[in-house]
Amino acid sequence: MRMSMGLQARQMQVQKLAPRMIQSMEILQMPTLALQERIDQELTENPLLEQLETDPLSAEESSDDVPSSDTRSEDEKELVVRDDSDNRDDFERLTNSENDLPSSFDDSFRRSAGGIQDDMDRRHDLMANAQSRPESLNDFLLHQLAEMDIDDEVEQVAERIISTLDARDGGYLRTPLVDLLPAGHADEALAKAEEALAVVQSLEPVGIASRNLSECLLKQVPPDHPHLDEITTLIESHLEDLAENRLPQIARKTGYSIELIQELREELHKLNPKPGAAFMETYVPNVTPDIILERDENGEYKVRLEDDRIPSLRISEYYRRRLQASDCTDEEREFIKQKVNGAQWLIDSINQRRNTLLKVSEAIVTHQKRFLDEGPEAIEPLKMQQVADDVGVHVTTVSRAVDDKWIQTPRGILPLRRFFVGGTKTEDGEDVAWDTIRLKLQELIDKEDKSKPLADEHLVEELKKAGMTVARRTVTKYRKKMGIPSSRQRRDWSLVKK
Questions:
Q1: What average pLDDT score do residues 402-410 get?
Q2: DSSP string spanning 352-419?
Q3: Rounded to whole angstroms, what are the CA distances from 323 to 43, 108, 334?
Q4: Tens-digit pLDDT profile for residues 467-477
Q5: Which residue stretches belong to region Disordered (predicted)?
Q6: What mean pLDDT value characterizes the chain?
Q7: Same domain? 177 vs 159
Q8: Which residue, of 367, 396, 420, is where some domain finishes?
Q9: How much of the chain is helix, strand and coil, in % rounded to 5?
Q10: What pTM does this model have?
C-alpha cells in the first residue's frame, strides 16, 4: 500500500443553522410562561432592549403614539448589524429623533417603577400559587412512631424499616429484616426486628410495610368479618384465580358457592393494595392557555393569542442617541453593535412566533371544526403535514409550534397535539380517526352481554358492521391501553345459566 501526504481541495455542501434561525426555533417552541421568563432574562442582560410601559387607563390614547414590537415606526425598522459593512444606513436611522436624551453614558440597565412593581407582583403571584410540599410517607410514619412508648432498640430498628419504605412502591417492605441488622447479629436482634416490624405494621395506613400483597390485604380484613375463614383462604391461596376471573375453578377447590366467591371478591376490591401510594407526590402542571378559541356573533370560531402578559419590546432611544454623540468611544460603539443584533433578533423571533402560532391554530380549527361542535366522537384524522401544507411551512415548524401549547376551547383547555390523530379508512373509503374507533369499542363492551362477553375477534366483526375495518391485534392493543380486561375476565359468572 502506497501512503503519501499532501493537500487536496474538495468542494462540499454542508447545511448549517444560523444562530438567528436557532433562536427563532427556540422562541417558537416556548410556551407563554417560558417566553415571559426568557424576555425577563433578555431585558436584564441586554440594556438596548426596553419594555414599553403601558397604562391600562390611557392605553387607548397612547396606542397611536407608542410603537410596539408589531408596529414599528420608520426609525425602528429592522436593525441588522453586519461585520462586512459600516452599516451607515442603519445607524443613520437611529439619529432621526429629537436630541432630548442625556448625553452621558450609563451602561446600567434601568427599570421603571412600573416595571419593578410588575416584577414584584409576578413573583408574589408565583409564591402565593405555589403548592406546599405534602407530608411524605416516611415523615407520617415517624410522627406516629414518636408518640409510641416502646423500647429504644425496637424504635431504632423501626426507624430503619420506615426509611426503606417507598410510596411509589405502595409502601411495601422489600428489604429482608436480616439485611437491616448489623453483621453477626444474634437471634435476640432478629426477634427485636420482628417486634419492630409489628410496630410499624400497626401504624396508619393499614397494611403498610407488608412484605407481599396477601399480607397487605389480610391486615385490612376486620377480625370480626362474618366470612373471615373464607376470605382468608381466598387471599392466601386464590388471588391469581380471582384476578383471572376463574371463579368455577375456585369453587371446585374450596367448595364455596359462586355467589359467595363473587361477594367476597367485591369486598376485596374495596381494600387498598398499595396503602403507601396516597403519599406519592404528584406533579400537576399549571396549565396556561397560549391560544383562546371563541365564537363571534355569527357563530364562527375566532382564534387569538393569549399573550397579554408578553411585553412589547423596542430598542432603546438612549443608545440610538449615543451613536451620534461625539464622545462615543470605539469600545462603546462596539458594545452597541453587539447588542443591537440580539435585541432585534428577539423582537423578530417573538413576532414570527406570534404569526406562526396563529396560522397553525387557525388551520387546526378549520380541520377539526366537527370535533369542536360535536365532541370527541367527531374528531377527524389529521397529520401535521396537512397543517404544514396549509400554512406553507415545514412540518418540523408545526411540531415546534404545537409543542407544550394549550388552547382554551368551548370544550375545555386542550393541548394542541390533541387535535392530531391517526386513523384508517372505512369500507366506503372515508377516513375515521382512531379516537372514534376507541369510543365505538368502549360502547360495544359497555353494551355486551356480560354472561357471554365479546372476544376480540367478535369485537372486530362488530366494528366491521359499523363500517370500521380494524385488525384483531389493533383491537387487542387498544383494549389493553384503555384498561379493559379480556372477555374471560369480564364475564359475570352470576349471570351464567347453570
A1: 91
A2: HHHHHHHHHHHHHHHHTHHHHHH-GGGPPP--HHHHHHHHTS-HHHHHHHHTT-EEEETTEEEEGGGG
A3: 20, 17, 10
A4: 777 888 888 88
A5: 51-117
A6: 79
A7: yes
A8: 420
A9: 55, 5, 40
A10: 0.57
